[in-house]
Amino acid sequence: MNWNSLCSAWGMCRWRLIAAALLAMPLVLVGLAFWRANRVREESAREVAARREFAYREQALNLAAPSGIEPLSGTPEFRDIALFGDSALVSSAAGLYLFDAGGTQIHAWRTGFELPPAEPGPMSAGTSQVFVATRGAGVLAFDGTRFRQILPENAAARNVNAVLALASGRVLLGTQHNGVLAWDGHRLVSLLQALSASSVTALAGTEADLWIGTLNQGVYRYHAGQLDALAGALPDPQVLSISVAGAAAYVGTPLGVVEFRDGKRMRVLAENLFAKAVSANSSAITVGTEDEGIVELPLGSRRKRIRRPAVQQLPCSVQEIREFAGERYAVTPSIIYRFDANRGWREAITAPAAALTARNVAALGFSGGALWVGYFDAGLDILRPDFSRSAHYEDDALFCINRIVADPGRDRTAVATANGLLMFDGAGRKRQVLGRKDGLLSDHVTDVAFREGGMVLATPAGLSFVDGSGVRSLYAFQGLVNNHVYSVAVAGDATVAGTLGGVSVLNGDTILANYTTANSGIRHNWVTAVARVDDDWFIGTYGAGVLRFGRDGRWSSFADLGRGFVVNPNAMLVTVGRVYVGSLDHGLFVYDRNSKRWTNVTAGLPSLNVTALADRDGFLYAGTDNGLVRISEEVLP
Fold first, then answer.
1. For 232, how many CA atoms within 13 A lie in the half-sphere containing its CB?
2. Which of 178, 230, 146, 169 lies closest to 56 in space, CA to CA?
């Protein structure tokens, strides 16, 4: 082949190669696009998984009961029951109890002592352990001997309202703020992103057919990868309970029970019945109510509302109804009933007698050697020195107790409530009720302080002064920094009022100065507690912890308190050596007046929400929203 022929052949090949490359270019670009898309999808999947996953700790519970701290006996407030072999595990606000088949207590684990300071609640039994939801401490797993804790790092995800152990071994957590979480022993993830911000109240069903009840979004059904919203099928969007029997689901609401079959609404049963608990089988459903006993609803009837209370005399609301191997149990706060086919509902487990009427303590005080305990919604107890109850008061006025203060100069005690100021004599007898009819600015009295010749009352409408000359008032129009007064304290002629909008300082009835975030170093205008400490005032706030207000008018914070926190209304107590402060969710803060240092105490508290404080003879009495404990001051820092 000559040179010209070679060149001609090479030219032909070159153009063919160029043409082939040009033809292949779209394929290369398409492949590159596919590669990039796959990479984006993988990265997106990783990001989604990361957003769905919750960091958590799994740890054995080896809490030892702290010395020098003892709970005062109160009703346990049973929440749920689960059978474990031949025993029954019962959850309650006070802790967890193990009972034998005869109803005799075998063991007890107390909230804040052997258990975290968080109320145990609903339970679900797996193949080898029982899972217990808590209000603030995640989920506890009990294997018959020991407890393990599944604790999300995110504090908001620790409030668990419902728990469901699935046959696959997974455990579902219905949370207060983060929807449904799923735990498989290795990872804790959000089950459904569509419900990731929902407040879940109930869980029932199986892995293949799951029912989810919420606080205000109705009920959802999750099946075959599909989430069905069924809120429009309910008479009320608040779901209280769910029970599943075969292809049927029964959803309890404040306005009755709705029957679903294969996900379709069939009818409303027991219209307008507050269906707090529901248990279903193939022939009937059992409904536990708030105040109407237990109602049996035979499913064969076509009537919409059938009410046949099996027990008329149930003493209080039904918290839960459970069925195990044909045995039905009804849980109330103080008694657990078992159903007998011949005799109806009979007592199976009974809580021991208690000195305290309730657990939600709102105010404490000592008067005449007796401890006075005021509740948020259960009136007032007066306890003898041996802590047995000597009297209980509860009426339209003695409801929602805000403050209990004994008059140091006279044999009388003032009890501030949401319905007036009640005055008791030294014998603990109610003598007088003061309200708007008597000249107060409001019936709602949030605090009271005695001063020379009379009292200063804090109300949501201003200050009222009561003495021998009558009743006088002071409010924002006359210079008070804000009408809504939460706390008031007196030292000599000086009075300091803590309000929703700052602090007012008075001399007698005259305002000397007002302090807000706009004109001073106070870090939060919402003031919830005030106390005199030496020459200073300690000011408790809703969010900025405790601040110091000096006699020179300067404001300062405490470096060792660090983070801000909520001080509960009037949960501040000054003793000879210490200052005690109760917080909303961080337990008890203790200030040593000699070292001038703060310490945070949580051990031995039945709840981190410390609502009231009192002291007597070397003991601190700390009231919480879940009970009352007595603490020897010797064990406190």
1. 3
2. 178
* DSSP labels, 9-48: HHHHHHHHHHHHHHHHHHHHHHHHHHHHHHHHHHHHHHHH
Mean pLDDT of 314-332: 87
The residues, any chain, with a CB within 8 Å of residue 26's CB and separated by 6 or more, are none
Does 2.60.40.10 match the CATH number of domain 394-635? no
User: What's the CA gap between 415 and 405, in Å, rounded?
Assistant: 7
How many C-beta atoms lie closer than 10 Å to residue 387's C-beta?
Answer: 15
Burial of 366: CB neighbours in 10 Å, binned 0-12, 13-18, 19+: middle
Q: Please report where in the chains the tokens 């007036």 appear, as a residue.
A: 420
Digit-coded pLDDT (tens) for 107-162: 999 999 999 999 999 999 998 899 999 999 999 999 988 999 999 999 999 999 99
For the segment 594-614, the average pLDDT, to the nearest whole number, is 96
- The domain defined by 76-198 folds into Neuraminidase (2.120.10)
Cβ atoms < 10 Å from Cβ of 310: 15
Residue-wise DSSP of 125-152:
E-SS-EEEEEBSS-EEEE-SS-EEEEEE
pTM value?
0.87
The per-residue pLDDT for range 7-23, each reduced to its tens digit, is 454 455 455 545 554 55
